[in-house]
Design brief:
alpha/beta; Rossmann fold; four-stranded parallel beta sheet; 14 helices; elongated
């Protein structure tokens, strides 16, 4: 039979409460009692049932992270940041992949509902603001890298509009005036904000907005190539392209190479995210870097504060971005 805490208390000649205080690291125990408890634990080879104890306290020290895909290095880097901070404060991170479906997210969130985890971080969630707000009334929820309009919950992301503004302004500083845009029809905050940043950068640079230089599709890889084909068919072709994601930028670059267009010379291409592939490509891809590790660390730190507080922090935190110029813009 397994050794129980009562067996340890009997062996040490102390109360169960005293053993519990020793296990919890409490200083409210005499040195003699602590020594006897530790000797009894070693003698009986006792292993505390921390899981059972945490469940009784309604705490598991585990946080769930739900992401739409495990193949995107952006999400992987965020999770690494989450794990790095969590390990320092005695928490663990478990991950689940929703494949961009609400049904999977709700199913995975059952771990939160049945108290298997203390909180959940959603990366690029498909849930709407009303659902998120309802969940936040009873559970510890946070959004990371993608906010939701109307969601009154803890959120950590970059300032997408300013980041896009800075990226397009960098192209202008390189002498580009005919700058096209590859965006999406998504209602996500990031997509809308990045398009707004593009338009504001043009306006502030005295460049007229041209609708024929704007392509809106999806985040699917092939849309970048489709956009480049449409821009190439114009009589007055763009000198530069800003895409709201690196995958769209890379797709456009591949199509340009296939068509014999010299990227970095004939046309400059700028992406967004700084995924690992940007440095592996030839040409290497200019982009906006999101500090994924810092985002992961900050969202976990703030979520743990919420878990341990009766007053919930529902602020929208932004982290610093960085424009990185590489060969695709002639650098």
């Amino acid at each position: 039979m397994s050794v129980t805490i009562k067996d340890v208390a009997r062996e040490a000649g102390v109360s169960v409460a005293t053993v519990s205080r020793v296990l919890n690291g409490s200083c409210n125990v005499s040195e003699d009692s602590a020594k006897r408890v530790n000797e009894a634990i070693e003698k009986l080879n006792y292993s505390p049932n921390f899981l059972g104890r945490n469940l009784r306290k309604c705490e598991t020290n585990v946080i769930l992270c739900i992401m739409p895909t495990s193949e995107h290095s952006l999400y992987s880097k965020i999770v690494m940041g989450m794990q790095s901070y969590a390990a320092k404060v005695g928490y663990d991170i478990i991950t689940a992949v929703s494949y961009g479906t609400t049904a999977a997210e709700i199913r995975q969130l059952s771990m939160l509902f049945n108290k298997t985890v203390d909180g959940a971080v959603l990366l690029g969630t498909q849930l709407d603001a009303e659902t998120i707000n309802n969940l936040a009334e009873n559970y510890n929820i946070a959004l990371c890298c993608e906010g939701i309009t109307g969601a009154d919950v803890l959120t950590v992301a970059v300032d997408d509009e300013q980041a896009a503004y800075d990226a397009v302004t960098a192209l202008v500083r390189k002498g580009k005036r005919k700058i096209a845009f590859i965006g999406t029809n998504s209602s996500a905050i990031s997509s809308t904000a990045r398009e707004n940043g593009y338009k504001r950068a043009l306006a502030d640079s005295g460049i007229a907005l041209r609708e024929d230089y704007i392509f809106r599709g999806t985040y699917d890889y092939e849309c970048g190539a489709q956009a480049f084909e449409e821009f190439s068919a114009l009589e007055d072709k763009p000198e530069a392209i800003f895409a709201v994601s690196d995958l769209l930028a890379i797709s456009a670059i591949h199509k340009a190479v296939d068509m014999g267009v010299k990227v970095g010379e004939d046309v400059a291409v700028m992406g967004f995210d700084n995924i690992s592939m940007c440095e592996m490509m030839l040409p290497t891809v200019s982009t906006v870097e999101q500090p994924c590790g810092k985002m992961g660390e900050l969202v976990v730190a703030k979520l743990i504060e919420n878990i341990n507080s009766s007053v919930k922090d529902s602020k929208y935190y932004t982290v610093e971005h960085k424009v990185i110029l590489r060969q695709s813009t002639g650098d």
